[in-house]
Structures are given as structure tokens and as C-alpha cells.
Amino acid sequence: MAKLPVQFRLNGSDRAAFVDPAENLLNTLRRGLGDFAPKYGCGQGTCGVCTILIDGEPHLACLTLAIACEGRAIETVSGMADGADLHPLQAAFMENFAAQCGFCTPGMLTAARALLAKNPTPTREEVIEGIAGNICRCTGYEPIIAAILAAAGSRDVRRA
Amino acid sequence: MLEFRKDVFADERDDNLNVVGKGLQRQDMPGHVTGRTRFFDDHAFEALRHLKVVRSPHHHARIRNIDITAAARAPGVKRVLRGADVPLNKNTLLSLINFGKDDEPSLAVDKVRYKGEPVIAIIAESEAAALAARKLVRVDYDPLPTVFDVEEALKPGAPVVNETYPHNHFEYHDKYDHQKLRFGDTERAFREADLVVEERYQMSPIEHAPTETNGSIAAPEHNDRFIVHSCAQGLFFSLGTTAKILNLESNRLHFVGGTVGGGFGGKVDTLTEPLAVLGAMLTGRPVRYVLDREEEMLYGSPRGAERIYIKDGLRRDGRIIARHVRSYFDAGAYTRLSSYAGIKCTAHIPGPYSIPNVSSDVYVVYTNRCPSTAMRGFGVTAVDFALEVQMDKLAHAVGLDPVEFRILNAYRDGDMKPHRRVAKNTALIECVQVAAEKAGWPLSPEAKRRSSLAGGGGERALIRATPLDERGRIGRPETRTAPSHQVLPAGTQRIPVSKEPVSQGANDGRPLPALVPLHESGRPAAVPPPPVPAPAYQPALASQPLPISTPTYQPAAASAPAYPPAPPSPAPPPAPQTQHGAVRFSSVFGTRRR
Amino acid sequence: MPVDVRTCQTMAEAASMLSGDRTATLLAGGTLVMRDVNEGRITDGTLVRVADPAFRLVSTGGGRIELGAGTTMAMVLASQELVFLHPAARAIGGPAVRSAATIGGNLFAEAPYGDFTVALLALEAQVTVQAGYGGGRTTPLEEFLAARERGRQQLVTAVSFARPQSAGALRFCKASRVRPKGISVLSIAAYLPMSGGRVAGARIAYGAMAPTAIRAKGVERALEGRMLDAATIEAARQVAGEGTRPATDAIASEWYRREVLPVHLGRMLAGEER
């Protein structure tokens, strides 16, 4: 079966790929375009390690068709830093030891980014709801919640 | 952060620390927050193939027929692997340290022993093509009777799960169906006790559920090697296992990894590497084999379930005078690491308490369940759970506060442990005291005064006369109950076992070592025994070349054959050989071979 | 043949494709279908996508509210007009799932999933279904659910329901082992319009207490015309389990679901925090 072309912006750059019709976006980002930051954890929409932003909204790349992303703006954690400068969320994760094995971290940061873009000053409960779709098996979540609240307290947090 | 209790063990400690207690950034943190950390799957390859496995839908069945013709012809399929394609299709993980018999195939051939056991591997250009082809494989099964309960599996007439161990239990020292610990006379102490409490505990299998599933990518590399990006927690271990199964020299494997998306013990079984490398060998292309989430949860090995019976004899004052533990470790269909779990469990009994009479029988049992593996505290966590719940029940039975009850029975420096080692650097009492303080749990002044440093040794360092028994002979379930036949005199210290490994892999054909241990006659417990010099090998048991190159150390005094022997001459003469270096204790069989 | 994807510009085209091809499956949010693709249960056939804006139309003017079947949970949460459905929408997955999960897809989610449908059932929603190029046909949700399996080759285009008496008249709770995102032990939606301080037209629905969302008609009868006081609530609890056929699954046993159902129902009717 012939592959289909799809073009979209990935972390601010124009990218294109030839994909199978039913190929999911996670596969395209990783194997097609070499962005390994979003991960495979379940393929079911349960774990959240494939969380990316499409036009600013959080989506699960494993459940999204690549061809459905034509013309969209996709963001992964690979584009979160400003050049060599970490995003305040990334810095806060470091300062608060919000990662151990690191596998959930790209998805977690992306979910947090989406949360703070909509709600720059979340309560603890709102942070928990914001990362409710992201499973972490290592940290017990508290350092992650602390990191997000700390980043929310930072002046720079409006930069999505 | 950390609180330093400088009042505890004040004389012994040095709290002038540079790193402990201070925040120190992880070296992998920048990679984690930028998404640059590379897990095994985060590597690009040209012409990457994808491997998917056909798994048994039955818990126990004969394989009557396998038809892969339609699958092999399916679009995008490059190769279909069967058991016959695997160079050494029978292995056990601990054969790398010569412990246990090879019992597990990489791909099942005539029989499947657990639901989910791999039978066929399909290698295709894409995951989608492999998944579509997987549906086209036809396997005909004849279901067999199953057994899922550890005690049922040990009864005569139970379905045989794993023919390598036809009595459904691991075989220790080629003699016993369980691991034994014997210290003092528990039977007699139970008769003398004021109170006997017997309970049964059951733990379920526990799935590690790492966020990253098990998997690996193997690719042909330069220098006629294969590079393997692996999720394995122990790269050398997985390399050795893969080399053995594929009959490859280990220097043809280049394992890269150590960055694991959550292991917790669940990434030690080398589940995917052998087939991934085999696929790369046979297709000449990179091959990726990753468990999907359903496979990880159902067929990725869990922490093994355990059933534990604890029988304790107490005096009315709350002192435990006898403890007997009988435990069954559910290994599932294959051994993997469970044989070692039984030993670790035994080493942990009776917990951090000073009990003058202790015995345990720990069985490792095969059932038609997914094979078990390690998980945090492997072999110990479950028995600790049982022991600590038991301690609460015992305290309740004698009307004592459970915290004070633990302080009362805690071991102290100088006490003799059932493994015939003197306890030192004990700290249970202080830990319990500080925990009680943190929890606001009131303690009596006497309990607060107790110390690990005082009151140990003396009578608590005695080794009582210990009845030995021959219970639990392999293949003879009627011997599981029998009287003792020998009594070790009081004061008998450690028993140095034979220097030969006491269990051997199936392949090397050497004669069985003499198994009856010699023991030393009574010595005063207070004097630690002098280091035992390595005794000479028994000539009858020497000394053919080992399958893995092992140069033997030759001290000047002994005359020993050169190693390796020159090819034309026959096997080396039975001259006495001494073992390299000091005797090192191995928890597996008492000493290391080299 | 590997899985193909066809994107239809109109709902009619999509309906025609579904009814004409038994191997065609509608792909809305992807939370159910893409899982089947990823895990190899769907390996051939066609996924049908709907690009028709009407598929996502939210019409809240007037006494009757109509939501296109492609309306996502995130869209529901973004609409202040639908605030009474926010508790149910929030109960679906996490934020990223809600960006994609659709009302129409939730109708087909098998127990113990499908919690949003429970709220629609309490609102006595109607389901508009299109088969082929013909016009749409409207069926009560309860009937639709009973025949759900036979309806997979039809296109659900919209759900509609009468605007509730007030935002507070629709109550919703979900019991799960993990919160905030967890699969249901059970869920309950209760539409309790009041008239003169008494319940008038109660509609109660359960999720995960049967193979599909069901109405709890025994509870409705017990509440009807009465004040929502302790005695009434107790009467409702007594008949809470009527008509339920909960499953034993990885989340909870049948026994457990039966045991806790009256507890959760009682708390909801009493207005207690979970």
C-alpha cells in the first residue's frame, strides 16, 4: 500500500513524512522524524508517556493518526527549552528531583506545560488533575507536583 | 532532608559527611528533563525489523502441530522463527553460575507450560505487518491438566509442569526438595513453650508494571558483532545468557544499556535479547522486539507468589523460644531466579530476632503460572511481611504491646544467629525506638533503655544441640515427615561444605560431588574460628578442563598440572590442586569455584 | 492488506461507507479503535474518519440541546452551557484523553468504561443514527444501548436531550480505585428535578453495573413525588440493586459492586462529598 505524505510543524520547524495510512503519530515522531522524546508505554491511552501538544492541546500520540496532523503545530519536550536555556518547568523538575528513571518525564513535562498554559496558578488539586493522565512508577508523584507548583510560582510561567 | 540521630551509637559514628544528607543532583537529570536520555528504543536504525511473538493461549498443553506457511508468506514478513532455529533452546538463567539445570526454551517446541509462553516469532518490516501475520500462524494444542497451587503441585500425582524437575520442585544439592535451616531443637522447644501460635500467610504475584516495557533492539555491527540496545538491569548477565542460548562467543555481543525505564527487578530475565539477536543474525538486519503493554502485564514475569506457614513457641513472658517456617515459593513454569529466592528467604529467617531454636523448610515449586522473577527485596520481602504480621499476632497472644514485644525479642550484638554467625552492628532496637518516638507510640522506660550494644552474647550466643534430618528427599514425598537421624552436638559452629559446586548444569558430565558435609567438633562460641585454609581437592573429583576458561592458581607448595592441558595428552592426572585465593562464601552453594 | 483510512467530508458519505463495508470501522477520537490497531486486533479493513463540521456541532440554544457525536470531552468542558455535564466529562480519562474522546465513542465503550453515557442516560438522551445516504433516525438512548452491537455499521451523528431544569439537578459520581483518573468500580448519574420541594421526574442511571449503562427504575419509583430526606434515601438504597448485573473484572468483583452501590447512591442523594 502506498504511503501517504503528511506535513506539520514540529517544535517550530516544518517537517514532512511518508506514513502508512493507519500509522500513529508516536511512530512517525520517533521512527519517521527521529524525535525520541515521546515514548511508548502502553499504546492504550493509559500511561501518558506519549503525551504531546497539538495546537497547544495535550494529546496522546499513540492514539492519534499521523495523517490527522496535517498542517498542525506539534510540540514535544524536545522543543521545550529555549535554545540552551531550560524552560522553567524543566528547571523546576531538576531542582525538585522530579524524575528517577526518567521515562515518564517527557510526557509529564508536556502535560504540565499544557496545564500551566491554561491555568498559570493551579492549586495542588488542579496540578493533580493536570497530570492525572501520566503514570509515574518511581517518584510517587510528590516531587513532580512540587516541581509544577514551584514553576507556577515563577514569573516566567506564562511562556507556554 | 535527613535527620542525623547522633545520640544513637554515638561512640561508633562519624557524621562528618560530604555527600550523605546533602542534595546532590543526579547526573542523568538534565537528559531526563530535555528528553535526551536514551532508553533502549531511542536509537534509529535503517531497515529496522519488528518481531512479534505467538504465545500459548493454554496454561498447559502439548503442541501437536505448528503451521507457519501462511504467516511466512504474509506481506512484509521477512522470517519466522521456531524452536528449531534457536541454537541452544533450553536454558536456565543461573546456569551462568552453574546453579540449576537448563529447563526453559526460548521458543516452545513440544509443550507449553504457561499461558503466554512464546512459540513462534515473526519478523517483519513493520509492527503492523508482524501483527497481521501473527494471526495467520496455526498452532494445534492438546490441553493438559493444570496445577496452579504450590501445595497441590507437590502432591503425588500432580501434573508434571516441567519435566526437568519431574516432582514439581527445584532440587537442592541433588538431594533435597527444599532448603533447610536447622538451629537448636524446635520440636522440643514447642513442647516446652507456654504458647504455640501457627499461622498461614499468602502473597500474590506482583507485577512490576514499569512504564517502559521489556524490549531490546539487536543489529549487526562492525567486527562481526551484534550491538544490542537492551532494557536489561544486568547487562553482563543478559550478555552471557544470550551468548549461551545462541552459542555465540561473548565477544561477538556488544550490549548497551543500563538506562532503564523502571526495572524494579522485572528486567533481569533476558526476555527479549536472545530472539532479537537471533533475528538479526538470520535476517542480517536490525531487529526490534518489544513487549506491548498487555504482554508486559500478563507475560512479563511477576514477583513470585509465596505461601508461608509460621509456627512459633513462646514463653508467657513474651520471649519466643522456637520458630519454624515452612514456605513455598511459586516459581511458575520455569526456574529462572526462583531457586536463588529460596536461598535468600532461608538466609533471612527468622528475622532480626534472637530465637534459640529455629528451623525452616523452603520449597521452590513449579506451577502452570507465568514464571516468576525478582522484585525489590527478592526472596525476603514476602517472608518479612509474614514475620512481621506474625509478630503482631504473637504480641497480641501474650498481651504485650507489639512494639515492646519486638524490642524484647530483638537480636543484639554478640547473639548467635541461626546461620551460626555472631550478630554484630545490630540496630533493630534503636530503629524501633526512634520509629515509636516519631509515631508518638508510648514506650515503657525499660523499653527505652534497651540497647543493641548491651545484653547480647553470653547465653544468647550458645548453639544448642541441633537434630539434623533427611526429610524431603527428591522424588520421595513420603519423606517430608520423618524423625531426625543425627544430632549435632551443642556448640557446633559453621559447617564448611565441600569445595565442589553442589549443583551443576546439565551439560558438563562431571561426576557428582560428595555431598555429606564434614563438620567441626564443638568450639567455644565466644572465640571466632581461625580462617580455614583451603583444603586440597579430592583426587577422585578433579579436574577436567572447565567449559569456561578458568586458570587455577598454583601456590608454590603444591604441584599442579598446567592449565589448559596440552591438546594431545589425555585428561590431566589427578594431582592435588588448591583453589585460587581465599575461600569466598557464596550464598548459592557455600563457596565459589574460583 | 494493511489498514486503510478514508476521510469523509460529509457524515452521509461516512455513513454510506460504514454500511457498505463490513470491514469499515468509524474512527472518532481513537481512544478505543487505535488501541485495537496498536495491539493487532484490527489488522485490515478501513478506518473511516469524519471531517464534517456538523459532526462536532454543539447547539445549546433553546430547550433542547444537540451535540454532534464527534464532540470531544474537552469541548464539553469548554462550554459553559454544558456545565451540568462537566462532572461526567471530567471523569473520562485524563486531560489528553479528553482532547480526543468523543461523545459518540463513549456510547460504544464497554463496561466498566462509558461513564459519560451514564449521564446522557439520566438525561433521557436521544441518539440520531444515520444508515447509508438516508436520513437520520432518532432512538432513545436506552433502546440504542440494548441493540448497540448490531448498530456498529451505522453512524451515530448526534445525541440530544432536553435542557435540565437547573445545573444542579443533574448529579454525577464515579467510584474508582485510583483518583482522579481510574476505571469505574461504578458510576451513577441522577437527574432530580424538583417541584414544590419534591422529586418530579427522577431519572437514575448506573455505569459498570451491567453490560451497558442502565436506568435504575426501582430507585426512580422510590424517589418519585417524595422529598429528598433520610427516609426517602433509605427507601432508594433498599432497591438500589434492582435490575443490575455487574461483572467481575480486574477492577472489582460482582459482589463488591453490589455491596458499595447503595453506599454511593445514598451519599449522592444526600449531597455528601465523596
Structural write-up:
The complex is a heterotrimer of chains A (160), B (594) and C (274). In chain A, strand 1 and strand 2 form a beta hairpin. Chain A is of the alpha+beta class. Chain A has helices at residues 25-32, 88-95, 105-118, 124-130, 142-153; strands at 4-10, 13-19, 51-54, 57-60, 73-75. Chain B has 594 residues and is α+β, with helices and mostly antiparallel strands. A 7-stranded mixed sheet of chain B has the order 3-5-1-12-9-10-11, with helices on both faces. Chain B has a 5-stranded mixed sheet with strand order 7-15-14-13-8, with helices on both faces. The longest helix of chain B has 18 residues, at 381-398. Chain C is α+β, with helices and mostly antiparallel strands. Chain C has 3 domains: 4-50, Uridine Diphospho-n-acetylenolpyruvylglucosamine Reductase, domain 2; 53-162, Uridine Diphospho-n-acetylenolpyruvylglucosamine Reductase, domain 3; 169-269, CO dehydrogenase flavoprotein, C-terminal domain (Enolase-like, domain 1, 2-Layer Sandwich), CATH 3.30.390. The termini of chain C are far apart.
CATH homologous superfamily label of the largest domain in chain A: Beta-grasp domain
Radius of gyration of chain A: 15 Å
**For the residues shown, what is the average pLDDT of chain B?**
87
Structural class of chain B: alpha+beta
Overall form of chain B: globular
Number of helix segments of chain A?
5
Look at the structure and give the CATH class of the largest domain in chain A.
Alpha Beta
Low-pLDDT residue spans of chain A? none
On the 0 to 100 scale, the average pLDDT of chain A is 95
* Oligomeric state of the chains present here: heterotrimer
| Largest sheet report of chain A | 5 strands, mixed
| Overall tally of structural domains of chain A | 2
How many β strands of chain B by DSSP? 17
Q: What count of helical segments of chain B does DSSP give?
A: 13
Instruction: Write the CATH fold name of the largest domain in chain A.
Output: Ubiquitin-like (UB roll)
Task: Assess the beta-strand content of chain B as a share of residues.
Answer: 15-25%
Largest sheet of chain B: 7 strands, mixed
Architecture of the domain at 150-206 and 302-466 in chain B, CATH level 2? 2-Layer Sandwich
